[in-house]
Amino acid sequence: MANLYKQKRLEIITIVYWFLLVYILAALVWWFIALWQQNLQMTNYRLNDLKTGDPLYKAKEKLINEERKRKETQYIGEGATFMLLILVGAVFVYRAVRKQIKLTAQQQNFMMAITHELKTPIAVARLNLETLRKRKLEETQQDKLIQNTLQETNRLNDLCNNILLVSQMESGGYSTTKEECNWSELAKNTVDDFRSRFPGRIFEAEIEDNIRLFADRFLLQLAMNNLIENALKYSPKEKTVKLRLVSGPRNHLFEVRDEGTGIADAEKSKVFDKFYRVGAENTRQTKGTGLGLYLSKKIINDHKGNITVMNNIPSGSIFIISLPAL
Fold first, then answer.
1. What's the rounded Cα separation, in Å, for the pair 204 and 206?
2. Residue 303 burial (CB count, 10 A)
3. Using an 8 Å Cβ cutoff, are 283 and 263 in contact?
4. Distance from CA of residue 80 to its chain's centroid?
5. For residue 171, what are the CA distances in angstroms to 164, 168, 220, 297?
6. Which of 161, 169, 227, 286 has the most beta carbons within 10 angstroms of its beta carbon?
7. Which residues pair with 324 in a beta bridge?
8. Which one, of 190, 120, 188, lies nearest residue 148 by Cα?
């Protein structure tokens, strides 16, 4: 119902907009025709007032016709200028309004998604803790519940970090602390952390040793986390997530490969936009807020690097981070 209401509202706004634009253009054309006819009438009146026996008849007639042509040129110039300004302004207003409506819808979807994303790990952790308190479980069952609780709290922590960082980085309130760091060590620790958090998933890692660069360790790890979590969300549980870190003479490359459904070419340029998520809002089932890839791109750009996405043959996606070497 909400989506239907928004669609109807957008249709009404569009109809009203085009009606007003057509009305303004019609008024401009009517103004141009009225002035043109008035100029012709005034010219005819002045020509009729001339006396044929006047020795200056030809000179006066020439002056009147020159003034008519000058006004016609003035009307054409002014009309064309106003027409161009109206059309440029109309396009600008139309795009701005459409963008604002789209952004508002994305923000509303984000609020619904973030509410769900926050409530789920809290509910799971609460249920697990209540189970541990009320029931006497075997050690293996306790370990499983504790592991599940830690996994949900880690997801909640990552989500909060993403939201806070986006807000701080966009407002200029976050100051990066860049230093020389070992990317290989950081990547290995990240992979080990995901293996412990997701014991049921398959990870393959190819990480070269002693790859060093100048970066903010916390932000770089957060960018890698977001890419890996994205691969886990959009690929089946039985599929492998492949990680690769290799060095180059000028740039180091970090790749995350998944074997999911992949990303359509038309959406590849949009997946890094704020709040954007692949698929339609009413059919999407994958969890997420649309901030992970946006924040990753912002972090990598801040490190003078680049992040891209390409197809993984035969299925899936490959996200590649490229950062300058020391």
1. 7
2. 19
3. no
4. 36
5. 11, 5, 20, 17
6. 227
7. 251
8. 120
Q: What are phi and psi of 313, to 5 degrees?
A: -75, 135
| pLDDT tens per residue, range 232-245 | 988 898 999 999 99
Q: Read off φ and ψ for residue 91, nearest 5 degrees.
A: -65, -45
Separation of alpha carbons 96 and 241, rounded Å: 40
Tell me the CB-side half-sphere exposure of residue 164, using CA atoms within 13 A.
9
Q: How far is residue 240 CA from its own chain's centroid? A: 28
With a CB cutoff of 8 Å and minimum separation 6, the contacts of 258 are 230, 231, 232, 234, 235, 239, 241, 242, 312, 316, 317
Question: In this structure, what are the phi and psi dihedrals at residue 255, rounded to the nearest 5 degrees?
Answer: -115, 145
| Chain-centre distance for alpha carbon 42 | 58
> Could you identify the residue written with the tokens 């027409």?
83
d(CA 161, CA 153): 12
- pLDDT band (50, 70, 90) for residue 283: very low
Q: Are 257 and 78 within 8 A, CB to CB?
A: no
Closest CA to 145 of 168, 171, 125: 125
Largest distance between two CA atoms of the chain: 124
